[in-house]
Amino acid sequence: MRTNTPKLHVAYTTMAHVFSDDIKYYVCPSHLPRSAFNSLSFNFFPPNALSNIFSFFLSFIFHSFISICLGLLISIYLSIYLSIYLSIYLSQSIHIYLYIYVNIYLSFFLPRYFAIYLSIYLSIAVYSYLSIYLSIYLSIYLSIYLSIYLSLSVPIYQSI
């Protein structure tokens, strides 16, 4: 025998409706009327205007990040080239204060973070170069001094 009473469904159904501005996702029991589950809508995607603004800001941030990274890479390669060139030049001739002048010049005209790294690198290079320079020239001066001292002191000792 058939009755006209509606059966209650325990399972839930989902319905997706596409509108012009956004996508609404409805979750509703199938036995409720349409007016009851229209109030249970959840927005999963923002409106088109908001998504356009968001994509504009993402592209702006991406392009500015790329330009900053390219500028830093160019300045890094330039400073590496300058430091290699200066180290070769300074190893061939004796210009100690050129490192300090280059460090001051580069700290004013390069970005601050990069100038900090470059000044640390240049200070280490200056200290290593000065230690080699001082050890070589102090040994030369010491040997000259000892040779002069010995050449002067030996005749004095022989005369006594």
Characterize the structure shown:
With 160 residues, this protein is mainly alpha-helical. It folds into two domains: 7-63, no CATH class; 71-159. Helices cover 69% and strands 11% of the residues. The protein has a three-stranded antiparallel β-sheet. Helix 2 (48-92) packs parallel to helix 4. The longest helix has 48 residues, at 112-159. The protein is rod-shaped, with a radius of gyration of 40 Å. The chain starts with 11 loop residues before the first strand and ends with a helix.
- End-to-end gap: 146 Å
Could you tell me the mean pLDDT?
60
Query: Residue share in helices?
Result: 55-70%
Regions with pLDDT < 50 over 5+ consecutive residues? 5-30, 40-44
> What is the spatial order of strands in the main beta sheet?
1-2-3
Number of helical runs? 4
Largest sheet report: 3 strands, antiparallel
The oligomeric status of these chains comes to: single chain
> How many E strands?
3
Helix/strand/pairing class, anyone?
Answer: mainly alpha
Shape: rod-shaped
Tell me the Rg in angstroms.
Answer: 40 Å
Transmembrane segments: 53-78, 84-106, 136-157
Keywords: Membrane, Transmembrane, Transmembrane helix
List keywords for this structure.
160 residues, mainly alpha, 2 domains, three-stranded antiparallel sheet, 69% helix, 11% strand
In summary, what is this structure?
With 160 residues, the protein is mostly helical. The protein contains four helices and three strands.
